[in-house]
What does this fold into?
Amino acid sequence: MRQERIDDVVVVGGGIIGCAIAREAARGGLRVRLLEKGAFGREASGAAAGLLSPQAEADRPDPLFRLCLASRDLFPEFARQVAEESGLDPAVSERGTLVVARRGTEAETLDQRAAFQRSFGLVAERLGGEALRLMEPALHPDWSEGLYLPRDRSVDNTLLVRGLELSAGRLGARLQDGARVLRLMVTNGRVVGVETAEERVRAGAVVIAAGAWSEEIAGPGVTPLPSHPVRGQIVCFGPTSVPVHPIFTHGFYLVPRRDGRVLAGSTMERSGFDKSVTGSGLAGLSTSALALVPALGRAPFHSAWAGLRPATPDELPAIGRARAPGLLYACGHLRNGILLAPVTARVVTSLLRDEDPGMDLSPFDPCRFLR
It folds into this structure.
């Protein structure tokens, strides 16, 4: 095996989290190497819908909600910088998101959610009847109650990940695809790099951002972080002109893209590393889509796909230092990987530079699993 230079940091995993960290660390003056086992952005990051919606389901001020709000605040400048650096517009939608409900118990839940969010200082506009119909004319009449969240947006995640890849490279990070990390290199209890099938890559620090595959990466005396994949299937319609806004209800969503496609998602399935699109998945998502916006029944079927979201045992991300010196984690983001990319990149880079991350990361401490 050939010996490589010693980088400041090796990032393992080329999805949105890994690419965002590589870019931010390179912007901060660190020498960065980014290793991806396959192609950049082709796993969960490329299979997502791109919702930036921390408020859509929020009814209490838990640590994940606060983290998501912090990352949403960073997103406009983050997207603008990536567009300038890469030349790719990630198509951030400024229309806001609609959460819809039917009369009765569902509407009462929506009222409670609106009250909580307003008490938290957030904008949440309660709508009903004609006002809702004017915003989203194609919505089925059964869905007569709504909550408009003007700061919850969406982004074309495939364009964003590609932009991050280009930006990281132009800022000096060395990017390598087809490089599966086999194990961590450990010297006197400290992680000093990684080993691939082709080479040993030495670094001052290693960041594991390998998504659903993070548990596979360990080394002598270093316990792997427990994680598992959660399959999410999406059905895509289009081109079509409806709906106008991203629409969210009961864990189901419709997300219109700038090019006329509409994404309907998503399942949440424990199916191992199987990325199959299933008949029941197609049927269930299509039925839910037409129940919300009947006009989608006349839209062409475009495509369908599945991705594997990364989850930890408590379904909170793992962000921060491991017990072994020289090792950090940035994984387990589950349904929030796109949204949490800016804040994750910022705090991990701060830790790499031995700086204060500026927020309490204890709820996301990887060591909660590394006893």
